[in-house]
Design a protein that fits this description.
Layout lengths: L1 H22 L3 H8 L2 E4 L2 E6 L3 H10 L1 H38 L25 H25 L4 E9 L2 E8 L1 H5 L3 H32 L4 E2 L4 E6 L16 E2 L1 E2 L2 E2 L3 H13 L3 E5 H7 L6 E3 L2 E3 L8 E6 L10 E6 H7 L4 E2 L12 E6 L6 E7 L2 E8 L1 H7 E4 L2 E2 L8 H24 L6 H12 L2 H4 L3 H25 L1
Antiparallel strand pairs: 1-2, 2-3, 3-4, 5-20, 6-7, 6-19, 8-9, 8-17, 10-15, 10-16, 11-12, 13-14, 13-16, 17-18
Helix pairs in contact: 3-5, 4-7, 4-12, 4-15, 5-7, 5-12, 7-12, 7-13, 8-11
This protein binds zinc ion.
């Protein structure tokens, strides 16, 4: 799978390079260049000066508020720097433990982890991953740009880029003006990116927690789950399966009010096998007589292998020593006419017009017979592994109040916000690492200048940055090794 994916990414860049070669100095190519587009090896970027004025206004609009804002950013970024070093150190120790131990050590809930789309990130998640990463990078750069203009540093240009598969953003500041500032002011500008990432992560987390309330005007909760997608070609797709928008309120005997209930009901269906109660008379009237035989361990009693018939086993008082009896029954009809009492033995069944017996579908493990109730439509029957149902049917607790509202919108926002929280937080922490070429390098240098450290101990900065870079590289290398491992 990932080979196909790698080929697709390579093809994308090759096609771009070919297009650039063939269009050469054509009008289209000239127009793209004038618009600020630049293409390099695995690198596409768009640079513009059209936002300079907006940043200038933002930086000069509320000076006192901005001073407090970026002052808080300075404190947050310095804490992030310490935290990032701690996280990278513990992640490194954990990776080494995994590689050296014969049995995998308990997970420490690793915060920083290498993410490679197509390898440890499902490709369909790119829809969330790429925009969330781009948003995090843009907000990061906005932090630098506003902090810089606040302190009178001119902005040359800004832009966004795509490197191999990872999007990013940048701002070009007048470095001479920046270096003429006091170390404390420089420090505020360098810290602004990390700070904005942390703020974005917190805002996204707050929105995520408030999402059930924010969605209340359009969506209600608590009366079931709405089907948001069904994998094509799976057992639940097609005319007899589930449809997007179906409201599932019960899975066999397990009531469903939320997404958590759905998972819980599916899990319990794998652990407990329930039968259904039916009057003995009804079983006699519905069953078709057929030969009972054993096929790969399971008992089969429906000759025609019809999809609507299923073989059930039951025990009878008169023949306790003679094993089970078998009945081939039309499943849907049998379920409609049976009570909804879960049972293990005949004793669990109430008296339904005469003697009532407990019937169990004769299925091979881990298959189950499950009934998905979706009023007002007919229930859907599922025969198979409940795990398959879990992986092929996506549901949401948010039930649209109006027909035009898409049932998939709240889960989409939920997933996107989760990505923003983790990617923005990770980008902030990564940039805070005291490492060459990252914000951490400039933050540490300006911080040492603030406390006059270079005069006391000149090589200190170099040693710290070398250690930080080594720590980050070791984590990256071990991250790759673990992915391959
Ligand atoms: Zn930065």
């Amino acid at each position: 799978m990932w080979v196909t994916w790698l080929a697709a990414v390579l093809s994308f860049w090759v096609v771009l390079a070919i297009l650039q070669t063939f269009t050469g100095n054509g009008r289209c190519s000239q127009w793209l260049e004038l618009s600020g587009f630049k293409l390099g090896l695995f690198h596409l970027q768009w640079e513009t000066t059209r936002f300079n004025r907006i940043f200038y206004r933002l930086g000069h609009g509320f000076p006192t508020m901005l001073d407090t804002w970026f002052g808080a950013g300075l404190a947050c970024s310095l804490c992030s720097m310490i935290w990032s070093v701690y996280l990278l150190s513990t992640a490194l120790v954990h990776s080494i433990q995994i590689l050296t131990a014969s049995t995998s050590p308990p997970s420490t809930g690793q915060v920083l982890q290498l993410v490679v789309p197509g390898v440890n990130l499902p490709l369909e998640q790119l829809l969330f991953f790429l925009p969330a990463l781009l948003l995090s990078a843009v907000i990061h750069e906005i932090g630098h740009a506003v902090a810089a203009t606040r302190d009178g540093v001119g902005l040359n240009s800004c832009g966004i880029f795509l490197f191999v598969l990872y999007p990013g953003a940048f701002v070009n500041l007048y470095t001479t003006q920046l270096h003429h500032l006091s170390p404390m002011r420089q420090l505020r500008i360098y810290c602004a990116g990390v700070w904005h990432n942390m703020v974005l992560a917190i805002v996204a987390l707050a929105l995520l927690l408030l999402l059930p309330w924010l969605m209340l005007p359009g969506y209600q909760m608590g009366s079931g789950v709405v089907v948001t997608s069904v994998t094509k070609g799976s057992a639940m797709s097609g005319p007899l399966g589930l449809e997007v928008g179906d409201l599932v309120s019960k899975l066999s005997t397990c009531k469903i009010a939320s997404n958590e209930d759905w998972t819980q009901c599916l899990t319990s269906s794998t652990q407990n096998v329930h039968g259904m109660c039916m009057s003995e008379e009804l079983v006699r009237s519905l069953q078709t007589t057929a030969t009972v035989y054993s096929r790969t361990g399971d008992i089969e009693c429906c000759d025609n292998r019809s999809l609507s018939n299923l073989c059930f086993s039951y025990s009878h008082e008169e023949m306790t020593n003679q094993g089970n009896r078998y009945a081939c029954l039309p499943v849907r009809k049998a379920l409609e006419m049976s009570g909804e009492h879960p049972c293990h033995t005949n004793a669990d069944c109430p008296a339904l017009l005469g003697r009532s017996i407990c019937l169990q579908a004769t299925l091979v493990q881990p298959a189950r017979l499950l009934i998905l109730y979706r009023p007002p439509m007919k229930p859907v029957l599922f025969v198979g592994d409940p795990g398959h149902l879990y992986h092929t049917v996506s549901v949401s607790s948010y039930i649209p109040r109006f027909p035009l509202l898409p049932p998939g919108l709240p889960p989409f926002l939920e997933t996107f916000l989760k990505y923003v929280v983790s990617l923005s937080g990770a980008l902030g922490l990564l940039n805070a690492v005291p490492c060459f070429a990252l914000d951490g390098q400039w933050i540490l240098a300006a911080l040492l200048e603030c406390v006059q450290w270079p005069k006391l101990c000149p090589p200190f900065l170099f040693v710290m940055l070398t250690l930080g870079t080594g720590l980050l590289l070791a984590n990256l290398v071990l991250g790759v090794v673990l992915l391959v491992h």
